[in-house]
Please model this.
Amino acid sequence: MSNKATAVESPFLAACHGGFHKHVPVWLMRQAGRYMVEYRELREKVSFLELCSSPDLIAEVTLHACDKIHADAAILFADILLIPDAIGQKLSFVKGMGPRLESPVRSLADVEALKPFETGMLSHIYDGVRLIRQGLPEDKSLIGFAGAPFTVASYMVEGGPSKNFLHMKRMILEEPQAWSSLMERLTVATIDYLEAQVSAGADAVQLFDSWVGCLSADWYRAYVKPYVKRIVSVFKGRVPVILFGKGTSHLLEDFAETGCDVMGVDYVTSMKDVRRRFPDLVLQGNLDPAVLYADRDTIKREVVKILDDIGSFEGFIFNLGHGILPTTPVDNAIYLVDLVHELTQS
Ligand code: CP3
Model:
């Protein structure tokens, strides 16, 4: 018998479908990570990439984090850069410098030299998803994820994190064929990868388009949106799709037009304003991760403000406005989740 959570019994899925069940559901972006001592201990024994290639460890880390902070949903432990690594751009992490992808992709010839993505290249991830679903209580949901093509492409073209995305913007303007070919490949790969996660038991998927806020709305519409729309359309009516970007207030109308079910809201954007702009859309967000360094009264004050701003608890998922920071006191993360549950329970 499948123990896949349904909208009826899961606060998270009820919210994804525009409803409310028991309490406002909470999960935190990057909820499994370095702020947890158990994670740091494990990382002393295995590298990040070793961790991401072991289904048992993927499941252990995912389930432990969800359980420890009392979250309503687990997010698969993996990384958005596993696809570039799988198709031939070797991924590494340089301490203090973030992710590196070797031989940046800067021309049509570079794009064509990449291997086509095959679903089986990341089969250990789907095995991890199956193990997580088996170990997760019925009322908790499992979120699969991938990077959206733009944000993944940004790392592939720049070779790592970037401030101004100059190589990528040059490619978009001067080598439109290379750009569309790269986006096309990433779109097809992302669809395959997410399909496999859903088949393995993911209840919802989140597309991380973390850095797309560096584009104007005109550029977004011309060079990015059609690809995101295609990905979203594949999952429409099957599992909820959450679309998240940072610094994307100027793009949210376009995000909504991709057909996504849930819109992730970053912490510089006003929840009140977004609720007013999109009264019919499910929203997720948006506590500033820095608030988790404050005292409990301050955390409570900031949480109450978001709950006031959101108005109705229907169709709302509480989250941070970006990933939890590596030095966050874990007790404050637990306090936050319990507090949202307590303040919103029916
Ligand atoms: O949310 C979760 O708990 C699930 C796991 C997850 C990770 N990365 C684990 C991870 C998710 C959803 C991601 C997404 C991701 N990865 C994004 C989009 C989300 C966002 O934050 O905007 C991006 C841009 C990446 C690329 C990436 N991978 C970065 C920037 C880093 C941090 C590098 C650093 O040194 O700070 C990673 C590594 C990474 N991914 C870690 C974790 C827990 C830290 C690895 C470690 O040192 O143990």
